[in-house]
Design a protein that fits this description.
- Helices cover 45% and strands 20% of the residues.
- The chain has 22 helices and 28 strands.
- The strands form 7 sheets. Strands 20, 21, 22, 23, 24, 25, 26, 27 and 28 form a 9-stranded mixed β-sheet that branches. Strands 1, 2, 3, 5, 6, 14 and 15 form a 7-stranded mixed β-sheet that branches. A 4-stranded mixed β-sheet has the order 4-10-11-12, with no helix packed on it.
- The two termini are 50 Å apart.
């Protein structure tokens, strides 16, 4: 598959599908409600750090608890409102909007109507749309207070409408203008969008908020152009505004202020202060001159309360107040184009998929959590400072789905890798090492690579004799028991089984998982294998009649060498083996075969000894055997016998090792007689003696005694370098 196709299938397609699913889910009512809730919470948060100041051109007169207590009952006689209107006339407000319905006739209507006519300032009374059975078709007298907007562009059927309307009583409606107070809630009951225009039949009228503003700016109907889905444009002598609206003519309120943020007076208190000044008494006159004055219910228990982003029970006059304040200050909700947000989220998600899918889980988690948190923080700051509205649910849902996909894919890939590792190496290495390979989350590099390891070769002494005297099934049983014990020890020390070659065990320490102390582990494994073989010999000897005497004398020789080799899967494309190759592997094999020539059971190179001591200190006891040149190599190799573990050696063996080292020094100094004398002493101390230790025909002391005796009679030439040439591979 081409790289572009791979990139598309593994990155682009999953990102597009995840964000496409999120976009589709966002069409559901449930997620739209969730999005609205997130906006409400941002709005509540903003109210604590709100830097915007409510317009000085707007004030509220609240029908509050004090007014209810003083005037006893609600609704109050309308002569109160008539008197209040006359008292307000002394202070010349810009416009007074009554967010109250006066639809039922009352005996005081005449006084209230006269006050409205003679007020000297614009007054807007509330009206609303209702079902046909509950409302009326306006009479000519009532219709006089309505203002029709003639310049409307777009689909009028989308505008909020009703078959009939509730208007103030004819006497009141004929005295002033009216505006529709309708603020229909969204499906979840919260008022976020308020109509600026409504429709009855084919006629379009301004709502209460817009009607108050038009009166305040002395704007005529022809000064207003309604472009549904775009803006409501006001071109009046006193003001020009372009108010964003949707296809239904609704304005999204940018809730900035609670009641206490506005200049607010209680109805009774304002009435009393104005009356006191009218009567020539001292009073704190409400500052209403030139302002838009909204009168509405704010006391708990009254009917004009409902859910807003601020609280479940908010005085609905606050809805109109915020809408008017927004328009006065041109403080509108600014929406970042949705396609930019979605494309940005898609791009970040795709970037994360490309960059972090192959990195460690911590980096992916930081990205997966950091991006949404940064986005949320930025969107909150933008909403607080500039009223910029960024959607939360949809883009974050798409981003989250993509992270779930990434995690799912990672889990699947890692699970497959675990199974692959276990299947590939379960037969070669210990379960503990397999677990380490799995936990490392790093697939072994296959196909051959350079690695620093210790190669391990072991072989049973005189195995051909075993094959001659044992029936095949008994031989297989014996070998399975022996090889199982050896392999378990090798694997327990972190080694990897390379192969079995008949009775031989070939293993490596340091691959496929690198082991810094591979040489020490290999040396320790040799001593554990020899100790376990001694236990097996005792066991086999105790099984009287089951095995011939030869089985009870089984010995195994082991050779080690450390260095760089090539490891990996090698073979044909259909059949291969995880193995090692290289000159250092061959040297390890020569150590195993050379051990027989030296009469020892474990032999290693000086490289292995030095590396072992670097990590294991002096826990492993070595005996230098000299410098040898193996067949096939021109360079001499210093070799050592692994004698045993410190603290577990007999005193005689420790003395033997020390004297043998002194004998080698004399030997290299050409002091043949001194060397021979020391080797004669070590011969009596050797742990393995010909004729005593099964399978032993010689030991290092006998070897050097022969050489020293030879050189006494025929000293080597001046070019002698002390190197012993092995006669066998």
């Amino acid at each position: 598959m081409k790289p572009r196709q791979v990139f598309f299938q593994q990155h682009v397609l999953p990102a597009v599908l995840c964000f496409g699913a999120a976009l589709w889910l966002m069409q559901t009512e449930l997620l739209q409600r969730v999005e609205n809730v997130t906006l409400d919470e941002r709005t509540k948060l903003r109210s604590h750090w709100n830097s915007a100041v409510a317009s000085d051109a707007l004030a509220l007169i609240g029908i509050d608890e004090e007014s209810m207590h003083e005037f006893k009952r609600w609704p109050w006689p309308r002569d109160y409102h008539g008197d209040f209107t006359q008292l307000l006339g002394q202070r010349a407000p810009g416009v007074v909007g009554w967010d109250i319905l006066f639809t039922e006739p009352g005996p005081e209507d005449a006084h209230f109507a006269r006050s409205l006519k003679t007020a000297g300032f614009p007054v807007v009374l509330g009206s609303m749309l209702v079902d046909e059975d509950d409302g009326i078709k306006p009479t000519a007298e009532q219709a006089a207070g309505l203002v029709e907007l003639p310049r409307v562009e777009g689909d009028l059927s989308r505008i909020y409408s009703g078959p009939a309307m509730l208007l103030p009583t004819p006497e009141l409606a004929g005295s002033t203008s009216t505006g529709f107070v309708d603020t229909p809630p969204e499906p979840d009951g919260v008022r976020r969008l308020v109509p600026l225009v409504v429709r009855v039949g084919g006629r379009v009228y301004p709502t209460f908020s817009l009607r108050c503003l038009l009166a305040y700016w002395r704007a005529k109907p022809e000064n207003v152009v309604v472009r549904l889905g775009d803006v409501l444009e006001i071109n009046a002598p006193l003001a020009k505004r372009r108010i964003p609206i949707d296809e239904a003519g609704r304005y999204q309120i940018n809730y900035r202020h609670k009641t206490e943020d506005f200049t607010t007076y209680g109805y009774f208190r304002a009435f009393a202060e104005l009356k006191a000044r009218y009567d020539g008494k001292v009073g704190r006159i409400p500052l209403v001159t030139g302002r838009i004055l909204l009168i509405g219910q704010v006391a708990e228990g009254l009917t004009d309360l409902g859910p807003t982003p601020f609280s479940p029970l908010t005085a609905l006059v606050l809805v109109h107040a915020n809408a008017i304040d927004n328009i006065l200050n041109e403080d509108y909700t600014r929406r970042v184009p949705a396609y930019l947000v979605w494309l940005g989220a898609l791009g970040l998600g795709l970037l994360g998929l490309v960059v972090f899918s192959e990195r460690n889980l911590r980096d992916q988690a930081i990205f997966a959590l950091g991006v949404p948190l940064a986005y949320l923080a930025a969107s909150i700051l933008l909403w607080i400072d500039g009223s910029w509205l960024l959607p939360w649910v949809g883009p974050l849902l798409g981003f989250g789905l993509l992270q779930i996909y990434m995690i799912g894919r990672r889990v699947l890939v890692e699970q497959r890798a675990k199974e692959e590792i276990k299947g590939m190496f379960g037969s070669y290495v210990s379960p503990e090492l397999v677990d380490r390979m799995v936990e490392s989350r790093e697939m072994p590099r296959l196909g051959g690579h350079d690695e620093e390891i210790t190669a391990y070769f072991s072989d049973i002494q005189d195995f051909s004799t075993f094959a001659e005297i044992l029936p095949p099934e008994r031989l297989v049983y014996l070998m399975n028991e022996y090889l199982s014990e050896c392999t378990d020890i090798v694997q327990a020390e972190g080694g990897t089984l390379d192969k079995y070659i008949g009775d031989a065990v070939v293993a490596m320490f340091g691959a496929p998982i690198p082991l810094p102390d591979h040489a020490y582990r290999a040396c320790l494994a040799t001593q554990r294998v020899q100790a376990r073989l001694a236990e097996l010999r005792e066991k086999w000897r105790s099984e009287s009649g089951k095995w011939p005497d030869l089985v009870g004398q089984m010995q195994s020789r082991i050779g080690l060498n450390s260095g760089r080799v090539v490891v990996g899967n090698m073979g044909s494309t259909r059949r291969f083996n995880y193995t090692m190759m290289g000159d250092n592997v061959n040297v390890a094999s020569r150590m195993e075969s050379g051990a027989k020539e030296w009469g020892v059971f474990v032999m290693c190179t000086e490289t292995t000894k030095i590396d072992c001591e670097r990590h294991g200190g002096d826990r492993i006891v070595f005996r230098p055997l000299g410098r040898i040149r193996v067949k096939g190599r021109s360079v001499a190799v210093p070799v050592h016998e692994i004698v045993g573990l410190k603290g577990s050696l007999a005193t005689q063996t420790e003395e033997c090792v020390g004297l043998f080292a002194l004998g080698l020094e004399r030997y290299y100094d050409r002091d043949w007689l001194g060397a021979k004398s020391l080797f004669e002493r070590t011969l009596r101390l050797e742990p393995n003696t010909p004729g005593v230790t099964p399978g032993v025909t010689r030991n290092p002391s006998t070897v050097y005694l022969e050489i020293a005796a030879q050189y006494l009679n025929q000293p080597p030439g001046k070019s002698w370098d002390g190197v012993y040439v092995m006669k066998e591979k």
